[in-house]
Amino acid sequence: MPESFLKKALWGFQPYVPGEQPPDGEGWVKLNTNESPLPPSPKVIEAIKSAIDDSLRLYPSPTAAPARAAIAAQLDVNAAQVAVGNGADELIEMCFRAFAGKGEHVAYPTPTYPLFEPLCRIHEAVPHPHAMAEGWTWTDELAQDHAPLKFIVNPNSPTGTWSPESAVEDVVARSRGVVVLDEAYVDFAPESCAGLIEKHRNLLVLRTLSKSYALAGMRVGFALGDPELIDALDAVRDSYNMDRLAIVAAVAAIQDQDHHRQIVEHVVAERAWLAEQLREQRFEVSPSAANFLFVEPPPGSSAPAVADALRERQILIRHYDREPIARWLRITIGTRDQHERLLSALKEIIQ
Ligand SMILES: Cc1ncc(COP(=O)(O)O)c(C=O)c1O
User: Fold this and answer.
1) Domain spans of the chain?
2) Sign of the CA dihedral with 224 first, then 227, 228, and 233 last
3) Per-residue confidence (pLDDT) for residue 3, from 0 to 100
4) Which of 205, 222, 237, 279 is the least buried, fewest Cβ under 10 Å from its Cβ?
5) Domain spanning 22-39+258-350: which CATH class is it, in words?
6) Does the predicted TM-score (pTM) go above 0.90?
7) Which of 208, 294, 318, 333 to mutate to test the pocket of ligand 1 (most atoms within 8 A of CB)?
8) 42-255 has which fold?
9) What's the rounded Cα separation, in Å, for the pair 153 and 66?
10) For ligand 1, is residue 157 a contact (CB within 6 Å)?
């Protein structure tokens, strides 16, 4: 028998650990995984209910064609420039399958979304992290890295930092391989850089319906890019990667832009309010263009201790136990009630 059934490349592997997901309905204030504080569109719920019928015995459209068509119409691109996936996470994984071979480099700035490093290990690619510069900006070394696959996240998580289109284009134009611009949080930011796909055939832009469309539970993400890159993703995708209910939910969500705008407006207004309140409690609050705040507790309080004390009060926020962000906390924007619970718990904990 082998020492382990796991392939050798994964011995000692540290998997990606998603934020805690406590059981529903137990009164938790969940501000740890950047879900929407508002519910999905009622039209999405209706569409899902009416799709629950005998047709579930049939496989879904392998290309999730109705979802691609709805996304293309909304974003004014060609359906051949759209791929869809079981969340943006699946599309990230498909990028490894399509663009990063065993032993090849995968570049990304750090700190950023912590999924890239474990995916390198799974795919036996070589992680090439580039420490961000002052103000969480991308470095020349990152832009010049000739890895066949590179990820940048804008707005970045967990820092919330927004980089203007000129900075994104600089990275894309100086890269030789595929650049994946993860725009999971872009709807809360000043603007998207998706228009750059018309100019740069090495650029893939990722989006998700998990945040600004309140559909984290349905698992819908999409990619925008040159048809050649989209074909590459399709070539490596699982045959039926979007189920029937996810497809109808995606179409209904994309078509209800009024509801989507309400979610975005709520988050942007509450983000400003919460930032102000936290500053009054002597927190350092980093500028955020996302649906979360990245904050440093006042001098004398430790970030993990604050997160633990909140957890004891059934309030979840995110702490990453790694440098250079171990002194910081990420707090998802919630409802006003949730914020008031958070703020009064913080008052108790910090005094
Ligand atoms: C930067 C980033 N990309 C992608 C995702 C995953 O999105 P999805 O829920 O569509 O898989 C997240 C989730 O929080 C994220 O923070």
Assistant:
1) 22-39+258-350, 42-255
2) positive
3) 65
4) 279
5) alpha beta
6) yes
7) 208
8) Aspartate Aminotransferase; domain 2 (3.40.640)
9) 27
10) yes
